[in-house]
Amino acid sequence: MTFIDLYWQPRISSSTDTSLCHGACVEVDSDTEAVANEGFKLGCISCKMRGEVPAKASVDWYFKALDESNFSHIYTYDNESNTTDPRFIGRLRWNGSKQTRDLQDGSIYILNVTYNDTGTYQCIFNRILMYPNYQFQTNARKNITINVVPRLTRGMASILSEVMMYVSIIGLQFWLVVEMIYCYRKISAAGEEALRESAAEYLAIASESKDNCSGEQVAE
């Protein structure tokens, strides 16, 4: 499920009252199928409920392999990144919000994915809302289960979408062919009718001319 947080902040100037509209925050679920020996983005977005309140946040990532029962801390981002697990040293890159302390996108990127990366990842946002007279601390937690495969497999929804696309294209082409045949027959029929009318007019004119000539000969 996605959540959209679209907020505004008033700004009062000496001449007019205006409002600033900030960008929307949308919580999108991360992909869950990674390909071995390739890169993979672990998505984690936590939208701030009170968009008008200044805040700062840090993000921590944890990992639990298939054969493990507890999560291990692997990465933290608090204005700078730090990989804490030897299994991921040199393979994790920050892929979230940049140039701000008010983090809402805590995504990271795994380089050179291995089968040992299969498991459950946990993303935790530690956010502090800074009100005028006090600060309020909150956190958001998300779990993402990743499966590492030799090559990317297509889901049923993707296959059905492609099939429907081809069916629509074929149906549209068939409809265009039918329309072209109909228009051709209609134009052809109109052309034949015009030829018949032209022939009838020509015969009428020829007959009238013949009658006029016969009348002139009788008069002589």
TrEMBL record:
Protein name: Sodium channel regulatory subunit beta-3
Localisation: Cell membrane
Domain Ig-like per the UniProt entry, residue ranges: 10-145
PROSITE patterns per UniProt: IG_LIKE
Matches recorded under SUPFAM superfamilies: Immunoglobulin (SSF48726)
Lineage, highest ranks first: Eukaryota, Metazoa, Chordata, Craniata, Vertebrata
Cellular-component GO terms for this entry: voltage-gated sodium channel complex
GO process annotations (BP): cardiac muscle cell action potential involved in contraction; regulation of heart rate by cardiac conduction
